[in-house]
Amino acid sequence: MAVIGFGKMGILHSGIVNAIPDCHVTAICERERLLLRAARAFLPKTVALYKNHLEMLAKEELDALFVTTPIHTHVPLIADVARNNRDLNIFVEKPLAATYAEAQTACEAVNNLNGVYAVGYQKRFSPVFQQAKAFIEKSLIGELLFFRASSFSSDVLSAGSSWRFRKGRGGVLLDLAPHLLDILLWFFGEPSAIESVKRRIYSGEVDDYVHAVMSYGSGMKGSMDACWCVRNYRLPEISIEVYGEKGVLTVSEDFVKLTLYSEAEKSRVLYKQSFDTSVPYLLADPEYTIEDATFLASVKKGVRPQMGFSEAAEVNAIIDRINENTHPLR
Question: What sections of the chain are H helices per DSSP?
């Protein structure tokens, strides 16, 4: 294995991969001088370090590659890999691209290649979201009427100059919202119409808050809010409430709650700890390990992963539609 981008997510995936039997990170590519210096200081000497990914692709015999670089670099890197190695398997951190057109370019680049291609939407591997999906598929709350969904974090609480504030990085809609949008697509499918508003709170070049209203062919409606300026969120948190004719379904990072009206509003709550989330190596939430292990299992078997490039491109399509149907916030 090799990793391009040795920031937070690159370090996370490297640690997980090295704990999986028969998998080893043998090369790292990182352009930032400080991160490269840290890699030289702490990594085993057996791990080769590169500043240029093309040099790494030429010199290393690799089975798979993890791309954990900034969003705007994903598609050019994928195109370079596709031109240089038809058999290399690729995992890309979310989102796949900055726009749907770029995501399509990534899909086309690997369309006729031999590898397995996945994108890091690890929430699909969380047991609470999987259970919520199962409840919806069983129609336990009857016909779906509407939902309220949010994704909040405390990442931006004052004006600053970090990468989050820079134009071209996408703001909250590309950084924080994709996980929530992917879950909504997974639960309900593609909306027939979208209207949205966005606002800059601390940032001068990107949006800090987005609110979108989604309509579906079934008649269901839903709203989603994403903001990284909400205080007291130690970690980013997703919350979804789904209202149906027979009850209410609530799911968050920590639990799934089912309330059925026919049972005098008796609720059934399953906390994350209620599920078997044991993994061989726990470096972050268990779903990260499950996600990486699932990708590597797909690589070994040569089968399509659950969250491939084409599925990830659908998230970019929703993001584009939100941007295209934005009204001024007054």
Answer: 8-19, 33-42, 53-59, 74-84, 100-110, 127-137, 171-175, 177-188, 286-301, 309-324
Q: Using an 8 Å Cβ cutoff, are 117 and 103 in contact?
A: no
Verify that 154 and 241 share a domain, yes or no. yes
Instruction: Specify whether the CB–CB gap between 64 and 3 falls below 8 A.
Output: no
Measured distance CA(145)–CA(141) in Å, rounded: 10
- State which residues form the domain around 130: 124-279+314-327
C-alpha–C-alpha distance, residues 132 and 123, integer Å: 12
DSSP code at position 306: T
Together in a domain, 235 and 153: yes
Q: In a 3-state reduction of DSSP, which class is residue 210? A: strand
Tell whether 294 and 234 lie within a shared domain. Answer: no
DSSP state of 39: H
21 alpha-carbon distance from chain centroid? 25
Percent share of the chain, pLDDT over 90: 80
Do the strands 266-271 and 89-93 form a parallel or antiparallel pair, or are they unpaired?
A: unpaired
Residue-level pLDDT at 36? 84
Would the pTM count as exceeding 0.90? yes
pLDDT band at 168 (very low <50, low <70, confident <90, very high): low
Q: What is the pLDDT of residues 34-82, one digit of tens each?
A: 888 888 888 888 999 999 999 999 999 999 999 999 999 999 999 999 9
**What's the Cα-to-Cα distance from 48 to each of 10, 36, 53, 55, 280, rounded to whole Å?**
15, 11, 12, 11, 26
CATH of the domain at 229: 3.30.360.10
CA distance 314 to 307: 11
Is the sign of the CA dihedral 295, 299, 304, 308 positive or negative? positive
Per-residue tokens: 263: 């049972």
Same-domain status, 145 and 226:
yes
Q: 273 near 265, Cβ under 8 Å?
A: no
Report CA 237 to chain centroid distance, whole Å: 13
Whether residue 166 is found in the same domain as residue 48: no
Condensed to tens digits (0 to 9), the pLDDT of residues 232-261 reads 999 999 999 999 999 999 999 999 999 999
